[in-house]
Every structure is written in structure tokens, then in C-alpha cells.
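Chapter review: from sequence to fold.
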Amino acid sequence: MLSPPLVVALGGLSSTGKSTIASHLPSIFPPPFYVLTILHVDDFYKPQVDLPYRDGLLDWDCAQSLDWPRLEDAVRKWKKEVKPKEGNVNPQPQFHDAAVAGEGRGKTPDNRITEALVDQLRDEVPTPGPEGGLQPILILDGFLLFTPSVPATFRSLLDLKFLLRAPYAVAKGRRESRRGYVTMEGWWEDPPGYFDKVVWPNYVEENKGFFAGGDVEGKVDHEACEKEGVDVCTRETDGLAEIMRWVFREVKRKVVVNGL
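The C-alpha cell string follows.
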């Protein structure tokens, strides 16, 4: 018996660890009681020729750069067709399993989420009782998933929404240290000034509503976040291990509510 499918959205500023967190979740919530699929929003860009410009630069970091109908269709298809498969995530052409999660996206090596932490969290995962079943979980990894510019019909598909953060200086350093990104057309490297002219302004515009006074490096506006059902990493300085525990705790809570 399948429990209701659970869609988990890992959103937020570029280079905050979304792909890294996503890549660990299949090991923490393993078969046979969990069926995890990872879907990268980076795979749903419009063709480069159709992307908008901001401040004279091609803008890969705004809502208008993504093919929302195709992305929404993929999520709806997963919710409708997901089936248990022994020993691995449910394979479908548009999805990535744990083995390839994060490849080709400029992901830097992660030495902060240890094998010991993954084992510890796995030991805390709920297992079904006599009437329980399998829990399908779709992990969405993307820079933009639940902010105002995202179509409401897509946002309505999300069960858990996590906003990952990083201070401006840290995020800029991480982004500018990346070699580039695989695209449908080949390879993209950020031009000089891209973070300050495109990435950061887009992030502020989309996410300022979740923070007191619109200061994305300041305090979280808990009332606004609760209204939108968004969980925000409360401290920008949290490392990946702390963020991993936070995401795990909330997913575990939702699994229990689902009645696994």
C-alpha cells in the first residue's frame, strides 16, 4: 500500500547546498519502505534563445527562464504514476536517481555531511506498522520553487517548502568559484558581474517577503512564512550538517503525519 505521495521543495539562493542535501536524502530514507525520486529544476529551462535579459545579461535566474507547464506536468505525472520499485528510486526519463544527483551543476565536493551523520539520521527514520506501506517522496531541487512569480498551480503541488540561505559574501564566493553549468545548448559560464547584476537582485526580489523589512540577510518574518507554508533556515551561518538535520526533521514529521 502506498502512502500519499510527498513533494518536498528545496529552494533558495544559488550555491546554498540544495543539490547536496537532495543527493543525501535517498540514503537516509532508503528502500524498501521509501521510494525517492529527485527532480532538478535546472532540467526545465527554456531554450537559451527564449531567455530574458537583465541589466544587459542573459538571465538564467528568474521565473521567466523556466518552462513551468513542462515542470508542472512532470510533477503531476510523478504523483499519478509513481510505483514501488525494489532497491532504488522510481526510474523515469526526466528524473535523476541518487547516483547522478547534482552531476553537471558545478557542485563542489561536500565534506561536511559525514557518513556517520547519514547513518545516524537513517536510524531515526520511521518504519511502517502492520497497516503501513510505502512512502513515495519527490525531492525538487531548484533556485525558484514557491515564491510569488511561480505559478500558483505549481505551488499547490508542494507539501514541504524549504528556503535555504547564505550570506551575500558567502553565496557570491561560492557561485563565482564554479567553473560553469551544463545547458541544453552546451556550456554556460557566468560573465563578469553576473552575481551582482542578476543572481542577487533576483533572489532579493523573489524572497524579500519572507523576511522582516524585506532584508533577506536579516530576521525571518515567521508570520509571512507560516502564511505561505515555507520553512526558512533561520540562521545564515548554519552549515550543511545543521541544514541536513533540519530538513530531515521536517520530512520525518510529515511522513509520520502521512501515516506510514
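Two observations follow directly from the output. The longest strand covers residues 6-12. Residues 86-111 have pLDDT under 50 and may be disordered.
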